[in-house]
Structures are given as structure tokens and as C-alpha cells.
């Protein structure tokens, strides 16, 4: 008779989860024994890297990724990345080994004492099957829950002796979980947009996740309205070179409301209303502004402090709105300025580094980004113009970009991938470079090396909190570390060397199928976060 292990691998094939991300321990070896040749195992050297790599893979592939961690300690190591996956709305089926059922009551070595509690609240569902034969069903249930909007990670704890128990074969089921938005609500929203004198569209990562680019473009063009991205976007949901695109809204309450001033109807699609940081008191909306919120997340709709919400599939909502609204003749909004013409400088400015990188990147490059203090020049110089081609962290925690870029490269072979990451963020997950080298994943890693946690220095200046320790990172040589992990790496100090270094990196990654690290030592000058410190009174 088939075993739980046999049935599970057949189930993974049927669900399209034939790549497993993990770092094996003794409690996982019974699952991994006699590993099938048609299943791919991707080894990462630390569990946070495992989870973030799976996050990038799942986002880029569009299907849930399967993760296998080592009991409680492995889940603990992966928790920061699991928080990011939760906020990124990434479908992950996270499993962890558990001690044998016969010893659980004794709390033996490597036991996960409260296995289902450990990952909460950053999973949609957490479960340890009651019987060994229930394991395949739990994995399938977890898969369908992870893939149901709003997508996210699930967790299943599996005792190590379950895998050899007998189990019956099962065929994967199909679960259609996309919900069409309420027609009457969409008709009312369309009427509001048609009647508005100065409407505005705000798009969030949910538009890209739902495959809604074309519908968002069609809606915006029919209304001829300005389009903003939600604050700190983790995905790009509108072409940034489009004539209607205006940029990203500020994160803080007061400047965000000021940016909405003068617009009588604001439609926010695929984003919360709103995620703020830091606290700069102000109104949620300017006086006289009506807000309509479209989301696939009932909780997001319920907690919004303003506006009327429509819950349902984001792409369907945009497509229907584009059908319902009339084509409006109104003056076009002022176009966003082109990228600034930045001169070379010594030391290298971040803006010049971004400009040189933009010139070297192939047009179809997938971008993974985690360099908070470099966001302003990044947004100015690098314009994302294709769907599902930009991936960042929605959590604010560090350690996402390096492993996520490897996951993106594994999911989309043949497409160039660049990872733009600060030196501080890179060190949270530097082990990912080993995985890229070991599995020949051709990612170009660009390290924006300012020798410090630049964003925290900017916050310290903004918050008037001088003298904060631990913000400088002297003595790091990330290029040397990367070479030690098996990658080709170059450290660049001169602006005149940047263009050749970037062109070489993309050429080498493509033709030799290997990662290349370009460690760019940049001017450590810290820019202002939100301008002058804001009076909260």
C-alpha cells in the first residue's frame, strides 16, 4: 500500500508544487528519503533565507511554493521572512518536522511544544494532523487556503513517523476562490467616477497580483485620470512610463492627504486605506473627497478608516468598471518628469548609480529591491513598465531581497533578474548568494554600499533623536564575502567604472549562468526623509 510520503509527493505533482525550499534536519529526513528525481530541492543555508526564497518564487510563478523547515527552531529562524510573506500576500505551504508521535508527551529533544501556535498570527491557517493518514489532506487544504484571496502562507506541523504510515491515494481537487464584486456597488462606483470633476486612481500591489494591469490602464485612459501608486509599493501595478502615472504616494498621513487634495473622488484598488509610517498627524482625506475602496480582503475593507468598500476580485472589478464608465474628455494631468540627468560624481551618488544601472538593464529585467534609503533616486531613475516584474517587501523588515531574487530567478529562467539591495539589508540574508551560485541562478546583485543603516539615520534626523548607536557598518567587504560564497563579485569605487561593471554583470550572468555581485560604494550622505521635521501640534 502507498505511504503518506508517496501520496504527498503525488499530490505535490498534481498541485504544481514540484520545487521544495528547505534546510533539512533529522525530523525532516523521513520525508526527504529516496528523494524523487522529478522534484527539485533548493537548499538554503538558513531558514529565513529558505522562506524569503520561496516568497520570491511563489510571487514570480503565481503558484504556491512548498517550504520544509526544521521543527521549532527552523520555524523560529524563518519567522521574520514569514511576516514579510504574510504582508506580501504570498501563497506558501510551510511545513515543519515534528518529533515522533510516541514521544510527544515527553517533550523530547527537538519537540515543537506548541507547534500550531508558533507561526501565528502570520499564517492563514496552522495545523498538526491528528492522524498520519490525514497529512496529505492537510497539505491540500493548506494549498487551497494559501491560494484563496487574500493569498498568504499556511503552516502544517508533521510528526516524523507519519511519513511511513499507510495512506490512500487522492486526486487533487480544483477550488475556484475568486469572488466577483457586487454589480450594484460597481455601478454606483462607475456613476461616481463619471460624475466626478477631478477623480484620481490609486493602485496597490493587489492589482499586479490579480493580473489587473490591462484593466487598470483601460480604466485610467477612459477617464483620463492621474494614477498614483499606494505608499511603499511591494509590487508595481501600473506602467511607470505611462503618461497618466504620477509616482508613489507618501507614507505619512498628513502629506498623503495633501497629495489627494483637490480630487473629489478617489478610488483605491488593491491596497489598504492606508498604511502609514511615520506618524505625521493629519486627516485621512481632505475635506470634500469621497473614497471608494476595492480589495479582495474583507479584513482590509473592514478596518479602513474612511470610504466605502467593495470586496471581490480586483481584476474583475477593474474590468467591469472600465466597461461601465464613459470615455471622458478632460485635460490630461501634468506628466511626471523624466528621470533626472545626473552627472557622475566622486564619491558615487546613489542617483548616478541608479542611472547607470537603468542604462545597463535589459528591457525585460525583473527587479527585486530592498534599499530604503535609496528609494527616491530608484523611483526616479528606474521606471517599471511590465507586469509582475517588481518585487519588494511589504513588511518593512530586512532580509527579503537577496533570497527573493534567487527565488524569482528560479521561477522565471531565461529572464534577467537584478537585485538592488543596501549593504545593511544584504547582511540579513547574505547566505542566499551561495544558493544562487550552487544552483547557477543568473542574478545580478547590486549592493548600494553606504557603510551604514542610512534610512535609520534619516529617521533619527526627522524624529530629532540624535546619538542613536549601532547605525554604522564599518569594515564590511560584501564583494569578498560573496566570492567566499561562490559568486563572482566586484567592488566599485569610481563612477567611471560603473557602466562597464553593470554591462559586464548582465552579460556574464546571462552567458555563464551564474550570479554576479556588483558592490557599489556610494556617497554616505543621508538625505531628508520627509523634508524638514514636521510639527505634530
Key terms:
19 helices, Rossmann fold, 18 strands, 537 residues, alpha/beta, 3 domains, globular, six-stranded parallel sheet
CATH topology of the largest domain: Rossmann fold
Amino- and carboxy-terminal Cα gap: 72 Å
Give the neighbour order of strands across the main sheet: 2-1-3-4-6-5
CATH superfamily of the largest domain, called what? Answer: Thiamin diphosphate (ThDP)-binding fold, Pyr/PP domains
- Compute the number of strand runs: 18
Estimate the global geometry from the Cα principal axes. Answer: globular
- What are the low-pLDDT stretches, counting only 5+ consecutive residues below 50? 532-537
Major sheet description: 6 strands, parallel
Structural class comes to alpha/beta
Rg, Å, rounded: 24 Å
Q: What is the CATH C-level name of the largest domain? A: Alpha Beta
Structural write-up:
- This protein is of the alpha/beta class.
- The chain has 3 domains: about 5-165, Rossmann fold, CATH 3.40.50.970; about 185-325, Rossmann fold (3-Layer(aba) Sandwich); about 350-520, Thiamin diphosphate (ThDP)-binding fold, Pyr/PP domains (Rossmann fold, 3-Layer(aba) Sandwich).
- The protein is built from 19 helices and 18 strands.
- It has helices at about 5-15, 30, 45-60, 70-90, 135-145, 185-195, 205-210, 215-225, 255-260, 300-305, 315-325, 350-360, 375-380, 400-410, 425, 430-440, 455-460, 480-485, 500-510, and strands spanning about 20, 40-45, 65-70, 90-100, 125, 155-160, 200-205, 225-230, 245-250, 265-270, 290-295, 310, 365-370, 390, 415-420, 445-450, 490, 515-520.
- The strands form 3 sheets. A 6-stranded parallel β-sheet has the order 2-1-3-4-6-5.
- α19 (about 500-510) links the parallel β17 (about 490) and β18.
- α1 (about 5-15) runs parallel beside α5, α8 (about 215-225) packs parallel to α11 (about 315-325) and α12 packs parallel to α13.
- The longest helix has 18 residues, at about 70-90.
- It is globular and about 70 Å long.
- It starts with a helix and ends in a 16-residue tail after the last strand.
- Residues about 530-535 have low confidence and may be disordered.
